[in-house]
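thought: fold this chain, then report.
action: predict
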Amino acid sequence: MNGAKRAGLIAGAVVVVAAAAAVVVFGFVGIEQTVKAGTQTTVCGVKVGVNVGDGAVSLLGVTDAPLAPGERARVAPLCVVEVVGIADSGLDADADGSSADATLRWRLW
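observation:
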């Protein structure tokens, strides 16, 4: 019986540590992804269109106002998307259709 209690305590501790790590990663640090302008991505289960222009990112289907780097928009009740940066993709906009990449970070708050 003593061995079973110990195993249960260890398993419980592992679950608590894993849950705390998930809250830190998804709540404070966030998950970054780079998206090409003119494409769609799924963030927190929500399809978001991404358009880049004039140093700002428009998240189509989420907000009407363009977001500059550092600004955030709520996508779902427990999900916020932050624009981290905008970079030139190195592609020819006329030939390839996309001239910028937007780096987005999503997190719980």
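thought: worth noting. The first strand starts at residue 31 and ends at 36.
final: tokens above.
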